[in-house]
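Consider the record:
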Amino acid sequence: MFEFEDYVKTYQKIKSKFGVYSICFFGGEPFLNFKTIKRFVEYLYNNFKVSEISNIGVSSNGTIMNEEIYDFVVKYKILFGTSLDGPRKLNDICRKGDFLSSVHDKVIDTFKYFETAKIKPVVQFTFNKHHVENCKKVISWLKYF
């Protein structure tokens, strides 16, 4: 897991050599390292003009959303991406969450949470053999979604 100093050193090095056009936190569940990510984003806003700060995004499974994370995403206009692999039954075949009866339902709740702030999450979709076997259901779901 990156520490604050790792983020700063990496950012400064890449920015000086190539420029930075966007930053995305991903890998596992990045919000498990929320305090460090928040500190780094605050560092950017405290040390650079807003016009110099890259687009910032996060690829999260959306299952540990809480008020503190929500406020952070809204305040800094973080692009929020998450995975949703079709209807509940198909999504929950491969996506499991500790203490969750349905990852699908939790992700949908996270989407609703963001509606109040007019944030439109980006949805990433993993297509596997279960989707092929249920192609008509997936197509129907995509049209609805």
User: Anything to note?
Assistant: Residues 62 and 109 are 9 Å apart (CA to CA). The chain has seven helices and four strands. Residues 21-144 form a domain with the Hypothetical Protein Ychn; Chain: A, fold (CATH 3.40.1260). The radius of gyration is 17 Å.
